[in-house]
Design a protein that fits this description.
The protein is of the alpha+beta class. It has 5 helices and 8 strands.
Length: 173
């Protein structure tokens, strides 16, 4: 399968490669980064499983996640894409690609999330048109703004692993 590489004005989104592991593991170990994503930093092993899962979804589902790099410097700045996490929550999100994104702290406040998430959805609209979903911690105002900019609308409140989350959905443009 040919894995897509996306370019924006400032970013490159490419399928995860082994050299993305160390900066990804550092990102996932940050309490600030994970505050609204499960609430706990991830171990190196969990970060490894994440990068393997992100790459493997492409082969299994025809979509997956990208490692996101600064186009000028090549620095890893985050991850984003689509998955089916088989969460077993209500509503069942496994019917649609579930969007997600995460960035290193140094990249916050620069508009990278909006730029990358927009590019991800342009790719999705062209290659897997239909509905997509995402879940966001109600306290994560930044991610809620990014989701809304990309066309997501609040669908309903729910719970995942004992934590309140908001579920958003979006239809292809």
């Amino acid at each position: 399968m040919h894995l897509p590489i996306l370019f924006t004005d400032r970013l490159v989104l490419r399928p995860p490669e082994i050299h993305h592991f160390e900066p990804s593991a550092t990102m996932w170990a940050s309490e600030n980064v994970t505050r609204h994503i499960g609430g706990q930093p991830r171990s190196r092993q969990e970060a490894w499983f994440t990068i393997c899962r992100n790459r493997g979804m492409w082969e299994l589902l025809g979509y997956g996640s990208w490692a996101i790099e600064d186009q000028e410097t090549g620095e890893f700045v985050g991850e984003g894409g689509f998955a089916d996490f088989e969460r077993g929550m209500n509503p069942n999100l496994s019917n649609w690609p579930e969007a997600g994104w995460v960035f290193i702290e140094k990249a916050w406040g620069k508009g990278y999330a909006s730029e990358a998430v927009s590019a991800m959805h342009e790719w999705l609209d062209q290659n897997k048109p239909g509905q997509s979903v995402c879940i966001i911690d109600p306290g994560n105002a930044g991610s809620i703004r990014v989701a809304e900019k990309c066309g997501y609308k609040f669908w309903r409140a729910s719970e995942y692993r004992g934590t309140s989350v908001n579920v958003y959905r979006r239809n292809s443009a």
